From TrEMBL:
<dbReference type="GO" id="GO:0005655">
    <property type="term" value="C:nucleolar ribonuclease P complex"/>
</dbReference>
<feature type="domain" description="Pop1 N-terminal">
    <location>
        <begin position="171"/>
        <end position="237"/>
    </location>
</feature>
<feature type="region of interest" description="Disordered">
    <location>
        <begin position="139"/>
        <end position="163"/>
    </location>
</feature>
<protein>
    <submittedName>
        <fullName>POP1 homolog, ribonuclease P/MRP subunit</fullName>
    </submittedName>
</protein>
<dbReference type="InterPro" id="IPR055079">
    <property type="entry name" value="POP1_C"/>
</dbReference>
<keyword id="KW-0819">tRNA processing</keyword>
<dbReference type="Pfam" id="PF22770">
    <property type="entry name" value="POP1_C"/>
</dbReference>
<feature type="compositionally biased region" description="Low complexity">
    <location>
        <begin position="24"/>
        <end position="33"/>
    </location>
</feature>
<feature type="domain" description="Pop1 N-terminal">
    <location>
        <begin position="84"/>
        <end position="162"/>
    </location>
</feature>
<feature type="region of interest" description="Disordered">
    <location>
        <begin position="821"/>
        <end position="879"/>
    </location>
</feature>
<keyword id="KW-0539">Nucleus</keyword>
<feature type="region of interest" description="Disordered">
    <location>
        <begin position="343"/>
        <end position="394"/>
    </location>
</feature>
<feature type="domain" description="POPLD">
    <location>
        <begin position="599"/>
        <end position="690"/>
    </location>
</feature>
<feature type="domain" description="POP1 C-terminal">
    <location>
        <begin position="790"/>
        <end position="955"/>
    </location>
</feature>
<dbReference type="GO" id="GO:0001682">
    <property type="term" value="P:tRNA 5'-leader removal"/>
</dbReference>
<dbReference type="Pfam" id="PF08170">
    <property type="entry name" value="POPLD"/>
</dbReference>
<dbReference type="Pfam" id="PF06978">
    <property type="entry name" value="POP1_N"/>
</dbReference>
Length: 955
């Protein structure tokens, strides 16, 4: 018998009773008894008979054999009654024990006999015997209460029930309670990888390859993005009081403020960085864009919209309330506009003493009589996570300023590319006037009432003329940056093409476009009175949202047209929408790819998102997500929020989240497959210690000045030394440590840009060097004294091949490194010598010394630091906290780090965006020659190879 068969036999006989005996293979033969446990007959056979009988294959074998399989063919001649009865009794007891024995689980159904165990009894306890029903009911209630461990079963298991219109809407509203859904969420969810960020559910990148197609769309056609997640805060009040309050949050040193003439008139959109009240240049909050409503005749009351990223709203809104003195919250008396009355029971918490009994899980949900009388819920428009009782308006009794939170009240789309202007011209048509029949009767719609006012209709005609002139502009980059145009358009669903078509600008100029007006528009922009829009009025926005034509009603009206595919005539009165067109400037620095990335922002009332989104998609635009927003900023050479704002609260929080994500990804790999950053000489591969960098460079320059002062004091006369002592003592007075801040003073940035010699850098705009002060020791000292502990935003262009990565190190080249650069533009950079991983070697040493550790403990010698085990938080390949010196850790002195890096398709080389220390940059520039000024080294965290790069400071 083979070994496998022996194991199988032992496994089958393991549970048999001990009293049952089986004969071994040596005793089984043809003449032996076939009765199990019959020991008597086996003793009557003699050895002679056993020898006469041929040897039969003994033991248990699987299956049937040709010769009977080794089983005896003859019946035994006699049996012993006592032995036979004992064997049968043992088998009967074993069988009874197996039947009566319950299973290993403590379930009540295991106590039933085998023939009574049915699956139906676990669902219906009435099928159980009476003595077991109470125990089964208690166990069922206990399992229902532990809902946290096991998910509840769906109440509606049928797909037909789930796909009912009312249930779909209820589920739609329920799922966007925690994370807000944009109006284009379902469209994105079918085609994009969705991420949950900043309280929203947003599309990150498409499920198909899109990097180069999206870049081609931004360069030659149009890219569309949904920016409705940006928060809008409205300020109302007198112009002088608004400007006085907002002046505390800005500074003229950083550029145009809220009081800029072009922006204050409402003709341009402005942008700036907001700080905490009176804290400039420290404690910035982040960048915002703002838009003033054009002035009304004879009124000083103004409206201002401030658009901010959702991560800085929690910091910006309280700051605006403080400077505007708006502490009185206005609670809404009615429900928000986007939430119908039928959904109030979903938003309000249930009462504790409710008489209604909750439905048991697994039963079919039916509509109650109360729900049957209520119409089906509508889709939540706006912020569905906000409670109806949450205030969204704050006012001030002293200043008269009113603050309104318009988050998710306005839809904002961004079109990027040279043909974005042609796309808008193809889908937007100026609203047609109502007929006399509609004007004669009073209407609840806003457009028929609007058509009765001649002044408003004259303004609409002038805006339509400007828009018609705007169609003659071939490229959106030819217009003044930030141009604003107000307009009222027809429903774009009325002109939806049957197939996708790619909208392109007309090669031939339009005959009805005046060339003189077109040039005036390209030079000075839209007139001030044409920037007005009814989108500023809340009553008009609510009216347009509430009376929007549904898709079902619109399709029914199209089916009744005599000629299929033709436009509805006359246009339905509820099909007029007020909009705002805001021009977005493209790349404004450098000489290559000028105005790259320019486009338009389309502002709409809520509820009309998909009505404009689908017609835009049908014009052949490419759709981008959050990832392409980052790449768009990178190609423009502009900082992206919150990635490139390390001194803002949102930027600090983002860096902490990014470090956690990179560290988790690093730890998921096995230790043998990880990059050993200690050997690569990289202290912080997943974060950038900006504060430590600024403090170390301040200390380095302070020690250098101290050494120079000591050397000068030794060469001076004793009288001069006495005069110098008070100054030295004043200089050595300890100052309180300040936090590292980003330098945003435009005058200082222009000075730094000139010292970096932007004329020799790739794609930089030439500047007049005659007006700049010389770069000497005194000028550097004055600059550092004015901007200590400061970081500067730079763009680094690689002079040879290479692709910079996130958190790459920017270092100072040595004199020998610059000699390699003189060999040619494509010369390879220096190499960093490998570092020794002391942490790994110490860990191996401790593993070997574990056996000898008790003997050391018994001795009287004190334990050294090498005998101590590393902390549990330390990770192999990473430096544990606290970090050593970040500037002098490698063979080259560190200046800063990269926050964005990739191969730039617009520049044709590797480009990196990041921050470097102002003190380190000035010290490096002062020591470099004129031909090599502004040249630095760049090294990726997982590489030992340095690359030459040029520093560009663009203002």
């Amino acid at each position: 018998m083979s070994a496998s068969k022996v194991k199988m036999r032992e496994r089958k006989l393991k549970n048999q009773p001990v009293s049952v005996q089986y004969l071994s293979s040596s005793t089984q033969h043809s003449g032996s008894s076939g009765a199990v446990g019959d020991a008597g007959p086996s003793d009557t056979h003699t050895s002679a008979e056993h020898a006469k009988t041929p040897q039969q294959p003994g033991g248990w074998v699987r299956g049937h054999q040709k010769d009977g399989g080794g089983y005896t063919r003859e019946m035994p001649s006699c049996i012993t009654a006592v032995a036979f009865a004992q064997a049968r009794a043992a088998e009967v007891s074993a069988m009874l024990k197996a039947v009566t024995k319950t299973t290993g689980s403590c379930h009540v159904f295991g106590a039933l006999p085998k023939h009574m165990r049915r699956r139906a009894m676990s669902h219906n306890t009435k099928r159980l015997p009476c003595r077991l029903r109470d125990v089964a009911n208690r166990m069922r209630e206990k399992s229902l209460q532990s809902g946290s461990k096991k998910k509840e079963q769906a109440k509606n298991k049928s797909r037909k029930a789930r796909r009912r219109h009312g249930n779909l809407l209820l589920e739609f509203n329920r799922r966007q309670r925690k994370n807000i859904w944009l109006e284009t969420h379902i469209w994105h969810a079918k085609r994009f990888h969705m991420v949950k960020k900043w309280g929203y559910c947003l599309g990150d990148r498409p499920t198909y390859k899109c990097y180069r197609p999206c870049y081609r769309a931004m360069s030659s056609h149009c890219l569309l993005q949904d920016l409705s997640y940006y928060c809008c805060i409205e300020l109302q009040g007198e112009e002088d009081k608004l400007l006085l309050a907002l002046s505390q949050l800005t500074s003229k040193e950083t550029g145009p403020t809220f009081a800029a003439i072009s922006s204050l008139s409402g003709q341009r959109q402005g942008s700036l960085v907001v700080y905490r009240a009176g804290e400039y240049p420290s404690q910035p909050l982040g960048p915002v864009t703002f838009l003033w409503r054009p002035r009304a005749q004879g009124s000083g009351h103004r409206h201002l919209w401030i658009w901010a990223h959702p991560t800085m709203k929690q910091d910006l809104l309280p700051e605006l309330q403080v400077v505007c003195q708006c502490s009185e919250a206005v609670y809404p008396l009615l429900l928000p506009v986007g939430i119908p009355a039928g959904t109030t029971h979903e938003l309000q918490p249930k009462p504790e003493n409710s008489s209604e009994v909750e439905q048991v899980t697994g039963t079919k949900r039916k509509r109650s009589s109360e729900d049957a009388s209520v119409p089906p819920a509508k889709k939540i428009l706006g912020d569905g996570t906000r409670s109806p009782t949450t205030p969204v308006t704050w006012k001030s009794s002293s200043t008269g300023i009113v603050i309104n939170d318009l988050t998710m009240e306005i839809v904002r789309y961004r079109l990027i590319g040279p043909q974005s202007h042609a796309v808008l011209a193809d889908i937007l048509e100026a609203a047609t006037e109502c007929d006399e029949k509609s004007r004669a009767h009073p209407s609840s719609l806003w457009w028929p009432e609007h058509c009765r006012d001649e002044n408003k209709m004259n303004l609409h005609k002038q805006q339509a003329e400007v828009y018609q002139t705007l169609k003659g502009v071939s490229n959106s980059g030819e217009l003044p940056p930030g141009t604003v145009l107000g307009l009222t358009v027809d429903d774009p669903r009325l002109t939806l093409p049957s197939k996708k078509v790619k909208a392109l600008a007309s090669v031939k100029p339009a005959e009805d476009v005046d060339e003189e007006k077109r040039r005036e528009l390209m030079l000075r922009g839209v007139p001030e009175h044409c920037c007005q829009s009814h989108l500023w009025e809340k009553s008009v926005r609510d009216n347009v949202t509430d009376h929007k034509i549904s898709e079902q009603q619109l399709n029914r009206m199209k089916s009744e047209v005599l000629v299929p595919g033709s436009r509805l005539t006359p246009t339905p009165p509820q099909g007029r929408v007020p909009i705002l067109l805001v021009h977005q400037p493209g790349k404004q620095v450098g000489r290559e790819m000028s105005s790259w990335g320019a486009g338009w922002d389309l502002l709409l009332p809520k509820g009309w998102g998909m009505a404009f989104w689908v017609p835009l998609v049908y014009r052949g635009v490419r759709i981008g997500g959050l990832h392409m927003s980052l790449k768009h900023s990178q190609n423009k050479g502009a900082p992206h929020f919150p990635h490139d704002y390390p001194d803002c609260p949102a930027g600090v929080h983002f860096q902490e989240e990014q470090e956690g994500e990179f560290l988790d990804k690093f730890k998921r790999r096995p230790p043998a497959k990880r990059t050993n950053y200690i050997k690569h000489g990289c202290l912080a591969p997943f974060r950038c210690p900006w504060q430590q960098l600024a403090e170390e460079w301040e200390l380095i320059l302070g020690e250098g000045e101290k050494r120079r002062g000591e050397s000068q004091a030794q060469n001076m006369a004793p009288s001069d030394t006495v005069m110098e002592e008070p100054m030295t003592s004043q200089r050595d007075v300890a100052k309180p440590r300040s936090r590292a801040a980003v330098l945003r003073n435009r005058k200082s940035l222009k000075l730094l840009s000139g010292w970096c010699r932007p004329v020799t850098s790739r794609g930089q705009r030439a500047c007049r060097t005659a007006e700049m002060p010389p770069l000497d020791r005194s000028g550097v000292a004055r600059f550092i004294a004015a901007h200590e502990m400061s970081l500067v935003w730079v763009r680094l262009s690689l002079l040879s091949k290479g692709k910079p990565e996130v958190h790459a190190m920017v270092c100072v080249p040595t004199a020998e490194d610059l000699q390699l650069l003189g060999k040619g533009p494509g010369s390879s950079g220096p190499q960093e010598p490998p570092h020794k991983d002391h942490l790994r070697s110490r860990t191996k040493h401790k593993k070997k010394a574990k056996t000898s550790l008790p003997s050391k403990m018994d001795s009287s010698e004190p334990a050294t630091s090498e005998d101590l085990e590393p902390s549990s938080d330390s990770t192999l390949g990473l430096w544990p906290d606290p970090l050593p010196s970040v500037t002098s850790h490698c063979s080259r002195v560190t200046l800063g780090w990269v926050t964005q890096g990739d191969f730039s398709l617009s520049a044709g080389c590797g480009e990196a965006l990041g921050f470097i220390s102002v003190a380190g940059l000035l010290d490096t520039l002062a020591k470099q020659s004129m031909e090599h000024r502004g040249v630095v080294l760049l090294r990726n965290p997982a590489s030992l190879h340095y690359r030459f790069a040029k520093v560009n400071i663009e203002v």
